[in-house]
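Structure request: Branched-chain amino acid ABC transporter permease, Collinsella aerofaciens.
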Amino acid sequence: MVLKIVRTVWPVMLTYVAIGAPCGMIMGQTGMEPWMVFALSSTFVTGSGQFMICNLWLAGVPAPSIIASVAAISSRFALYSASIAPHLKNASKRQTLAVAATLTEEAYGISLAKLIEGEDWGPRESFVLNVILIATWGVSCTMGAIVGAVVDVPIAIAAFVCTSLFICLLFSQRLSRGNVVAAVSGAVSVAACKFLGLANIAVPASVVVGIAIALACDAVFDGRGARDAR
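Returned structure:
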């Protein structure tokens, strides 16, 4: 079973190596030992969240703001778990919890597709897939931390990895009114907070403001569309 899953997921594993190594380098820049990097990467798998923790810490952002920011971008995992749970209705509660608690974005996408397609795939396969990807991510980050300790990587260069990651995430989104409004309002919120001397809350505030304005905008236009249809 493990070999079958590895054959399915090996391209994602290579991607984890390419992204995890720079993440581990940045984590090492914060003063974390390799074993600490492995422990965090194996228990808190939220890719972009780990980049955010390191970069905000290096920027001197207070811990409460870091926690709020990472919690906001990691809340998506609750939606992943909720959407995959109905497809595991024949599994025990323990199996469902194990799958939901170890999901990553890529594992979620693969497992959900196979469960919907009705392939020979169940909670055991989903859990093993999750463990394989988590182990790959943890080892990749750890190797990055080890290499970073030997090779001096400038913080400015390493920190840009997070910025470039979020730029890629931004441009990979579907071009829609809500996404554009969220991106623009979030950027304006960050600039306003910086201008007002509220840099400590700039990131979490921009997340809340961007989402709130995008939802309000969609609600207004959807309401107008419904009225016009009448």
